[in-house]
Amino acid sequence: MLRCHTPPQCRPAVGAGAVLMRRREMAARCCAAPRVSGVEAASAVEGGGGEKRTTTMAERLRMGSLLEDGLSYKESFIVRCYEVGINKTATVETIANLLQEVGCNHAQSVGFSTDGFATTTTMRKLGLIWVTNRMHIEIYKYPAWGDVVEIETWCQEDGRIGTRRDWILKDLANGEVIGRATSKWVMMNQNTRRLQRVSDEVRDEVFVHCPKTPRLAFPEENNGSLKKIPILTDPAQHSRLGLVPRRADLDMNQHVNNVTYIGWVLESIPQDIIDSHELQTITLDYRRECQHDDIVDSLTYIEEGEEKSSNGSAFAAPHPEEQRQFLHCLRFAGNGDEINRGRTVWRKLAR
Amino acid sequence: MENGRLLSLVVLNFEQFWTQSRSSVMAGSLAASAFFHGPGSSPAASARSSKNTTGELPENLSVRGIVAKPNPPPGAMQVKAQAQALPKVNGTKVNLKTTSPDKEDIIPYSAPKTFYNQLPDWSMLLAAVTTIFLAAEKQWTLLDWKPKKPDMLVDTFGFGRIIQDGLVFRQNFLIRSYEIGADRTASIETLMNHLQETALNHVKTAGLLGDGFGATPEMSKRNLIWVVSKIQLLVERYPSWGDMVQVDTWVAAAGKNGMRRDWHVRDYNSGQTILRATSVWVMMNKNTRRLSKMPDEVRAEIGPYFNGHSAITEEQGEKLPKPGSTFDGTDTKQFTRKGLTPKWSDLDVNQHVNNVKYIGWILESAPISILEKHELASMTLDYRKECGRDSVLQSLTTVSGECVDGNTESSIQCDHLLQLESGADIVKAHTEWRPKRAQGEGNMGFFPAETRQL
């Protein structure tokens, strides 16, 4: 299981009053400072006493915010030039980074701890942390440099031991949905590394800010996010061996960042697919974590057969013949233990 | 519902407030700060963007949606919940007395200038105002938004704009969570990425973007592209997650055939310098890969933008050791990291390795003992050769002897070499490191006091 380094979940450090409390403080400040224009007001209020932690310039300037019902969070991002890949559109790693960012900001906006472990008070007492289990991203239209992407995210319970975080990505210019994503998380004891059920105590802390009725980014049946990824034993058709984590791939806890795995999975895709196709879907199952001194092999297997046409999602590429599907495995070069399993679906680029 | 009634009260009394203001623009900005001041609400972003424009509310932001939201009042008051507020602030008087004839009934009721004594509960007012700006936020995000032309809007999303009579380009960046390194401050790669982004946006906003990254139209016609030959950076402080940085960039001539691009990065909030940098660029034919003189047509395109100001003065530049300078007298230690290969995400549109990536590789071989206790104070890079997808590189770092034992008091100097395993030099660099500042300084209190790994 992978440690939850980065996207903290939606959980309040205090009870349900937290959100309303912060909103009141917001309101109080803005009523108190009508005279000056926005920037000066911000600094004046900041300097004029009041709690040090609650509203910083960054929070006021942050583009995202909770929606009215407080159950989800929305933020917009502009795609920067260095986030764009060889197709002149944002890379899937950029998208994954933005999903992570908005997840973090969601947590922060409802007042959660953002130390990288994203725990509630009770969880810390019991030594529990969240770890990612699965990540599934579908992108229908990649944004280009200068485009603004609006991402909405929320989280909710998922069975007895888990939580899930969902995202919807839209092009802010025209409101079109350009992508969807979902991720599953489980709770684990930090010391024993064993999975733990979400106790009622923790549930109350964690899920008060989540939709009570299930809201799924992938509501359709048999959608790609639910498909199992089998163990791969046959020799891989393509591979890239000897991948090494860089310093920049490590998160605050010295483990390889979730997004880096996506890059490694793509490393063993053959050049002709990269040149002619675009990644539509990626599903990753996280099994083990990886550190700076590990060496990783990336293996790719072609996935044939009925899978190709069973993808009944309304958003999928319309012609299965133009799709290619692969299964992936990332493993330690030394002992062959699996780090991740994955599946990718590619659609032909309209060049 | 209480909410609805109070909402209407608030709106009505702000109407009084607006119609009494001296100018509609002022009203707009005051209204903006009063109403919409809150986390992430976008009209606050207009305040963020520049000091010389006040509250530019979008034209068609209608407050109608705000007041319509709560349930109509139970009938105790003859107040219609659909107040048609039209804050059309740009040049027109802001006036709530618009189309709805029912409004006439409302006006006499709102005669009392202060409404505080009307409120049954102060906290309800706060909740009401909260609802207003939350709904306004929602309105804002649903607006017909066309961000395609960056000059249309103030720097809401960080498009950047040209200032100082066209000579300087300025853009702001919010440091995102994935841009910070293991020590919770922005990595040097993040800062360099911002420099690259502003350089491109400068060229684009100045209308000089030809085909390909940064090449002007005259250059594209001749298959010429810019390649960086040297970069010098002086870093004074590192921003943290959530900080906003302001990057200024400008160009100047560098000899007869080169161009210099300088940057000055400041913390947006405090104005303190984060880093200063200068770079030298030369032209290369993208097909022959040979360096080229600057054609007169290109000089004519970019000459008008040349600004003689220097981010790093000559003296400061001279003081920075050149890459490859040897350490005399002291022992040195060498560290190597091999087997570095570009990933797909390291490549730009031309399938060449982005020059910011080299910095990460250079630092790969820096010993962890330096990175843990020190921060990069300055760096000088000499770019020698480009590399592509199939290159395999190795990174060598030579550290001046006295510092290797983890002495945290002094500054450290390192010499770096990034080369193909087959031998050719890609980049030579020299870095200076200083002991890290104490944690807790300027990190906005987001992280708990105990650090987990450092």
- Evaluate the radius of gyration of chain B: 28 Å
CATH superfamily of the domain at 142-313 in chain B: Hotdog Thioesterase
In CATH terms, the superfamily of the largest domain in chain A is: Hotdog Thioesterase
Mean pLDDT of chain A: 74
What does it look like?
- Chain B: One of its GO terms (molecular function) is fatty acyl-[ACP] hydrolase activity.
- Chain B: Its EC number is 3.1.2.-.
- The complex is a heterodimer of chains A (351) and B (454).
- Chain A is an alpha+beta fold and 351 residues long.
- Chain A contains eight helices and 13 strands.
- In chain A, strands 1, 2, 3, 4, 5, 6, 7, 8, 9, 10, 11, 12 and 13 form a 13-stranded antiparallel beta sheet that branches.
- The relative contact order of chain A is 0.14.
- Residues 1-61, 306-310 and 313-319 of chain A have low confidence and may be disordered.
- Chain B has helices spanning 2-20, 24-36, 42-49, 64-68, 103-109, 122-142, 188-205, 217-221, 296-302, 314-319, 355-364, 368-373, and strands spanning 161-163, 168-174, 224-235, 244-254, 258-267, 273-285, 291-292, 332-340, 374-383, 393-400, 412-420, 425-435.
- In chain B, strands 1, 2, 3, 4, 5, 6, 7, 8, 9, 10, 11 and 12 form a twelve-stranded antiparallel beta sheet that branches.
- At the A-B interface, helix 1, helix 2, helix 3, strand 3 and helix 4 of A face helix 2, helix 3, helix 6, helix 7 and helix 11 of B.
